[in-house]
Amino acid sequence: MLLLWAAYALSGAGVIKPLPLTRLALIAITAVFLARAMCFPLLRPAFPENSMTFWWVSSGICLVIGLVHLFGLVARWSDL
User: Fold this and answer.
1) What are 60-64's contacts with CB under 8 Å, separation 24+?
2) Which domain holds residue 24?
């Protein structure tokens, strides 16, 4: 899944040829990353074996990736 998402990011950046539904896919991918970053308190009870360190680090990573995707999406919006 992450490889597919990376392909859409590269497509949106103009590095590879355009993929189908690039704009819609990038919106969805960005939303998933940002939602995962923000909703960890709701997810935590489903995975009680994970430590708080895991939740903070993984949520931070998702937040950074989501913000990078959002920045790229806004910057290239008119080109998509």
Assistant:
1) 62/33, 62/34, 62/36, 62/37, 63/33, 63/34, 63/37, 63/38
2) 2-79
Task: Supply the pLDDT for residue 80.
Answer: 80
**Domain tally for the chain?**
1
Q: Which pLDDT belongs to residue 21?
A: 95
* pLDDT value of residue 7: 96
SS3 of the chain: helix, strand, coil, percent, to 5: 80, 0, 20
C-beta of residue 11 within 8 angstroms of C-beta of residue 22: yes
pTM: 0.89
